[in-house]
Amino acid sequence: MPHADSLALPEDLDKRQFYEHVCTTLEALLTPASPDDPAANFITCLSNAASLLYGSYENYGQAFGRQDGRRINWAGFYLVPSLLSPATSPASVEPTQLLLGPFHGRPACLSVSLKATTKRPVGVCAAGFLSGETVVVPDVEARPGHIACDGVTKSEVVVPIVVKRRRADGAEEEVKVGVLDIDCEGLNAFDEEADREGLERFVETLVRLVRWDL
What SUPFAM superfamilies has UniProt attached to this entry (predicted)? Predict the structure, then answer.
């Protein structure tokens, strides 16, 4: 199947079926030819993942249609510096920010701070990363600390990306490497069930198939 055809959707999908289809397609796109396939690296895989998710939302007009003012205007990733520049940001150092990773949509903030101040709490991406839990925001303007990378965004959902790695002593540990961030031009675009569960499954598929180079 040509990769561009991955964006084709069956008709009359409800949200759960939509995410099931997208996750199945993601697995087909990212399954490496072999465990050491260079194409399994995280930049390559996250680039295709962002494109697949953004394009699939574009084609799923019944839930995220332009005519209803509920268009998805951004889909992508913010990642810990140790992934993107390990020479200058070793994994042993606690990150103070997340850096822009692969995405689709308008230009975005190059980084988001993980540190709150007395005047401003952390933004949505930082909140999802620090808590390790999905954050659904029905109205970003009502959310303290929201970082307005794009003024047309009205609602947002952020899913943390947590992977397992083996330490030098052989023990396994969980490591947070970033977040998946989805923005929408409409209010209340994402629900606490179908969207949350679907996007968490999307991230779980990424975690399983991507080589994270930790």
Answer: GAF domain-like
